[in-house]
Amino acid sequence: MSTWLNDLKKAIILQDTQKLESLIDQMPQFSELFEMEAAAYLLLSAKTFLESERSQALHSLSQLKNTIDFLKATENITASSINLKL
């Protein structure tokens, strides 16, 4: 099995997104059907992992936005500002 496939396995197991990106950019041409199938399976696993990471990041960003919005809405109004309610 090629070293690229072994490196891809390690990157998936270690959840190393930078290494995954680097390996995907440097994907070699495979000469054997077995290597092609292994690469396809591993790339599918990497895709699933990266989509999960993306989803978690989007969720975290949404939570941060909600927290910021809440903090802005509950800020103390300074005495010098005029607050008129109609």
Question: Could you walk me through the main structural features you see in this protein, from its secondary elements to its overall organization?
Answer:
The chain is mainly alpha-helical and 86 residues long. The protein has one domain. It is built from 3 helices and no strands. The chain has helices spanning 3-14, 17-25, 33-73.
Q: What key attributes describe this structure?
A:
86 residues, rod-shaped, mainly alpha, 0% strand
SSE diagram, text form:
Layout: H1 3-14, H2 17-25, H3 33-73
Helix pairs in contact: 1-2, 1-3
Overall geometry comes to rod-shaped
Helix percent band: over 70%
Bin the strand percentage.
under 5%
What is the number of E strands?
Answer: 0
In angstroms, what is the radius of gyration?
A: 24 Å
Number of alpha- plus pi-helical segments = 3
Number of domains: 1
Biggest beta sheet summary: none
Strand-pairing-aware structural class: mainly alpha
Task: Briefly say what this structure is.
This protein is mostly helical and 86 residues long.
